[in-house]
User: Fold this.
Amino acid sequence: MMNQLNNDNTISINRRSLLERFISIRNTSKNLCQNLETEDFVVQPCPEVSPPKWHLAHTTWFFEEMILKPFSHNFKPYHNDFKKLFNSYYKSAGHHWLQGNRGQLSRPTVKEIFEYREFVDKKIVDLLQNSEENQEIDFTLEVGLQHEQQHQELLYMDIKFILATNLSFPKFTSTAIPETQEPSSNWKGFKEGVYEVGHHGQDFSFDNEGPKHKTYIHPFSIRESSISNGEYLKFVEEGAYSQPQLWLSQGWDWVNNNTIDTPLYWRKENDQWFEFTLHGLRPLDFDAPVTHISYFEAHAFANWSGARLPTEFELELFLNEHEPAQKDSDILHPTQTNQLIGQNWYWTRSQYCPYPGYKRFKGKLGEYNGKFMCNQFVLRGGCIVTPKNHYRNTYRNFYEPQQRWMFSGIILAKDL
Assistant:
């Protein structure tokens, strides 16, 4: 990947800025994987976890399919098979390989994937340096950059799951995790009223974040810290996983059918609790935020504690009153319960559905978000591995209620 642009002064300031971000973000994805062994790039421990080499190839396919193919004159794809292998779910782009079977493929090799990235990167830079301003190209490139940053977060999630599958619990990074603070017990109240929510303004947002609209909100309060490991441990030790009255019906089935009794990466050895992190297997930090929690677990904990989960709009109002904490890019695990933006994605009780007046992206990009507005819940807040300058308080992350390999935590609300 080239590290700098040429000195052609005919390129507009906006186009040059896009290209600089393109180079930076593409290099970030590559650098993120530097600590992996070749074997780490290719395994798929479960269907929802993709091999890292697939992420590196899929984000490359996105630029090839969405920009080079329609806008680059006489463009020839790098490899005819890649359209099927690295398309994720875009039905309008043709057939694609099944997500659960991505780990079956030993070819193309990791080396070939990096060569593919180099090929496409050079083609993108050449196209943008030698073409006239085009709003469609520039917007699609921006979506591609945001898409790649989403996959950088996914890479951390999937790498963690892959490493945790090993008996040796290998470290992804040797950076020390800082000490945590005791969680606050304060609550912030909000008056009832009609509030404006959703994204507005000229900066980028995904189609599912808008349009800005009004919603009526009843009086409520939110605790000014996320739930800690120590608080969640009490939930575990009081036998909450065996109390059906705390659980949604599907959640109770999920707990019993999968023998769930702790958060995803917890383990107990010789009467001591440990947690696997990207920094390795560590003694459980009781003051740190509990993470890797499913919606079912978050909902049950809220019932057990006499509270509830916030709606996504309540949480948006709350987060708007908090500044994002400055994060150390070398720290890859939530540490501060009192820093409410950028530690964990927080489950809300809001179903993922369109806003009034929702309009999806045009063309193939129309499949980006809207098609998933069924049987999923919204999360807000960003997490410790969300790329810098990627998160917004209107950002609507979404997952199925049983999923928990993402950095997901709990924040509580109450009616007033």
Remarks:
- The chain is about 30% helix and 10% strand.
- The radius of gyration is 22 Å.
- Residues 187-415 form a domain with the paralog of FGE (formylglycine-generating enzyme) fold (CATH 3.90.1580.10).
